[in-house]
Design a protein that fits this description.
Blueprint (H helix, E strand, L loop, with lengths): L4 E10 L3 H9 L4 H6 L3 E11 L4 E5 L6 H8 L7 E6 L2 E2 L5 H10 L1 E4 L11 H5 L1 H6 L3 H14 L15 H14 L4 E5 L7 H18 L2 E6 L2 H7 L2 E6 L2 E6 L1 H6 L4 H6 L11 H4 L15 E2 L5 H10 L4 E4 L5 E5 L1 H7 L23
Parallel strand pairs: 3-8, 3-9, 6-7, 7-8, 11-12
Antiparallel strand pairs: 1-2, 1-4, 4-5, 9-10, 12-13
């Protein structure tokens, strides 16, 4: 299966003589050297692919270049160098008119600030992208209504934006993107303006929609826990560069450098890891103990801890064919949580006494 979206060696430089600045970056110059000359390198040599139906999260601190990178993916910003391909089409080679057509029909964007029209109803806001496409009114209202229902806003179509809460307004923005049936959704800090509880609800909503719609999504965030929760894969950016790309488990267990390691040190590992990430694969069938309670490679860490607390032996991990693929001793579970602060973990068992990370 070929990638739906491909970014190849993207650079974005603001300021004087940007092409010359790209040459200097390729030769080893850093951001600070260019800044001294009045030039800002926002994105430096960024390459990645996004597979069909994948949520690809780009995360980094403010100023890391993540939003600039996103805007190059749909042509809102022209790359100084590099290419963006969508379904094999080179977007960087398109004219302005052709790019507008792609944005109208194939790529939708959900912004951090809801960008709703206050003088249009919720239904009219959700149908706006279809109106731009020239879809007849009856058809666009039907499709917008279906998108609002998917986003939990059935019954609010005739309301005005100022009658909705912040979370509901963001759902309208998501419905507007879904109504166009675009192949690619670009989401720029879409939930960061929301209160924590509403933000969590929107994350749940997106994951639920994704199970049904299987859209290809590029999601920008500065929140590591949000990235870990949503992303099939995550790209970590620092100073304009992508410093690591991988699954949440890859980044959590195998950070590429000290920067990534410091970034992830406060992540709640129990919410990210699965049995497949922590199991010992160097086992024989007779080493699994009694298999009265078992796990699969996708069993969440917290559930794995609960199983471990109920059985007196390592937890057997079985694949879809009920074949043993690994075991998880209790000491191994606690070891994966050993770097985290706090007292007892869900893995502690009164039956066996307290187990420490040094066990």
């Amino acid at each position: 299966m070929s990638a739906r979206l491909e970014a190849q060696h993207l650079y974005k430089v603001f300021g004087r003589r940007p092409d010359e600045a790209v040459d200097r970056l390729r030769e080893g110059a850093d951001r600070q050297e260019l800044r001294a000359d009045g030039t800002t390198a926002a994105v430096i040599d960024a390459s990645f692919t996004v597979e069909p139906g994948e949520i690809f999260v780009v995360m980094g601190l403010s100023g890391s270049g993540k939003s600039t990178l996103l805007r190059m993916l749909n042509g809102l910003l022209e790359p100084t160098a590099g290419t963006v391909r969508f379904d094999g089409q080179d977007l960087t080679a398109l004219s302005g008119r052709e790019l507008r057509e792609v944005r109208a029909r194939k790529i939708s964007m959900v912004f951090q600030h809801f960008a709703l029209f206050p003088h249009r109803s919720v239904l009219e806001n959700a149908a706006y992208g279809l109106a731009v496409q020239g879809v007849p009114r009856a058809e666009r209202e039907r499709r917008a209504g279906e998108a609002l229902a998917l986003c939990g806003l059935d019954g609010w179509a005739r309301s005005w934006p100022d009658e909705l809460s912040g979370g509901m307004q963001q759902r309208v923005g998501l419905a507007r993107a879904l109504a166009t049936d675009a192949d690619l959704l670009l989401m720029d800090e879409s939930f960061s303006a929301l209160d924590p509880l509403i933000r969590r609800d929107m994350q749940d909503q997106l994951l639920e929609l994704q199970r049904t719609l299987r859209k290809t999504i590029v999601f920008i965030t500065h929140d590591l826990n949000e990235a870990m929760r949503l992303g099939d894969r995550i790209a970590v950016m620092r100073d304009g560069r992508i410093v690591q790309t991988g699954s949440a488990e890859d980044i959590l267990l195998r950070p590429a450098n000290d920067y990534v390691a410091s970034f992830i040190q406060d992540v709640d590992r129990s919410r990210v890891l699965t049995a497949g990430a922590v199991m010992d694969t160097g086992v024989r069938g007779d080493e699994a103990g009694c298999a009265c309670e078992t796990a699969t490679p996708d069993t969440p860490f917290t559930e794995l801890c609960a199983i471990s607390a109920r059985v007196p032996h390592p937890v057997a991990v079985l694949d879809g064919g009920h074949k043993l693929v690994g075991v998880v001793p209790r000491q191994r579970l606690v070891g994966f949580l050993g770097d985290q602060e706090g007292g007892a973990t869900p893995c502690d068992s009164p039956r066996e006494g307290t187990v420490t990370a040094d066990a």
